[in-house]
Amino acid sequence: MKNLVAKATIMDEEKIRRALVRIAHEIVEKNKGTDNLALIGIRRRGVPLAERLARIIKEIEGATLPVGILDITLYRDDLTTLAQQPEVHKTEVNFSVINKTIVLVDDVLYTGRTVRAALDAIIDLGRPKSIQLAILVDRGHRELPIRADYVGKNVPTSKREIIEVRLKEIDGKEEVVILETTE
After folding, report:
1. 82, 115, 149, 181: most buried, per Cβ within 10 A?
2. 5, 159 in Cβ contact below 8 A?
3. What's the pTM?
């Protein structure tokens, strides 16, 4: 049986806030404003991150961006290994993705498989003009050729380490920690 031991806190509330402000500025700059732009958070922690980015962009540009919620459960390539009955939540994208620039938002980029599943789910909603990826923490170890357009923090990790993002909206606290598995 594997145990998890806290190794380090790599981001506190202020570092998370600063990373999101920087990402929001980069999104606006790369897209030359906010026209035809929408954010979609991958369910769980990608959703509050997308909502926060939308609030920051509103402060910067005065524009309200649509924010969607994407559940990728049924698009996962490891669905049969997750559970007998995986818990499926609702995808809530209440706007057309057709010809929009979509910024997909998640907390941690690891193998790239979650993002691949999210891309399939978005394409099933329509054909966007483009899809960009915003990630709070990129920990490496990609199994698929997927790269984030916007990264809050790059954290080289070993395969024994786990990055855990904790957000107030879900976890009641605000931090990013590295946990290490022990045998």
Report:
1. 115
2. no
3. 0.93
Paired with 40 in beta bridges are 68, 104
Q: Is 173 left (phi over 0), alpha (psi -120 to 50) or beta?
A: beta
Whether residue 146 contacts residue 115, with contact meaning beta carbons closer than 8 Å, is answered with yes
Burial 138-173 (b: 16+ CB within 10 A, else e): bbeeeeeebebbbbbbebebeeebbbbbbbeeeeee
CATH of domain 13-156: 3.40.50.2020
Each residue's pLDDT tens digit, 70-102: 999 888 666 555 455 556 678 999 999 999 999
Tokens of residue 83, six digits = 């559970």
Domain range annotation of the chain:
13-156
- pLDDT tens digit string along 132-173? 999 999 999 999 999 999 999 999 999 899 999 999 999 999
